[in-house]
Amino acid sequence: MSVKDVVREIEGKMKKTIEAVSREFSEVRTGRAHPGLIEGVHVDYYGTPTMIKQIASISIPDAKTVVIQPWDVSAIPMIEQAINQSKLGIMPSNDGKVIRLSIPPLSKERREELRKVVKEMAEKGRVSLRSIRREANDKIKKMEQDKQASKDDSFNGQEAVQKLTDKFIKEVDDVLVAKDKELVDYGV
Q: Residue 174, Cα to own-chain centre: how many angstroms?
């Protein structure tokens, strides 16, 4: 394994961290209906944890409603239970064929709470990126000590790792700013 391999490996890990942060952000309710609210919710579908989007179609007929149409209507109670157990705070209603979620407007206090939540999510993402950086730098330093990499390669590798870390932390910050703006603007 070379220093470049270590850098490539951590870049992949950092991309996955960004994807996870973005997915968490999409599940935060802003008062506007969108499929990301429930796509990641896991349903205990006959003993197997399954995401809603894998067992049902999700549509948004208007800005305040999410409609979930399971391909197997017997899954409706399981989907309702999963939604009730999620952090969404929305009560599902069904007519025997589809589940409807009416998205209530957010109070000013709830928007402020959610802003704090997304800031914490962003900070967890940054911490995760920094721990990936530390792990990579430790590997590179060990390679230098074991004479598997020169001092120049080690220095360049650590510099590349820092540039990747800065790039991905900026991505987390950009996603945070967009989500925060969405939470603030929707209340106006």
A: 14
Q: Which of 40, 34, 17 is nearest to 122 (CA)?
A: 17
Q: Is 150 helix (H, G, I), strand (E, B) or coil?
A: coil
pTM summary value:
0.67
Residues 6 or more apart whose CB falls under 8 angstroms from that of 48 comprise none
Task: Tell me the mean pLDDT per 10 residues along the chain, length 188.
Answer: 88 92 77 75 87 88 88 90 81 90 80 86 94 94 90 92 95 91 69
Give 179's Cβ-side CA count (13 Å radius). 27
* Cβ-count burial 10-48 (b if 16+ within 10 Å, e if not): bbebbeebbeebbebbbbbbbbebeebbbeebebebeee
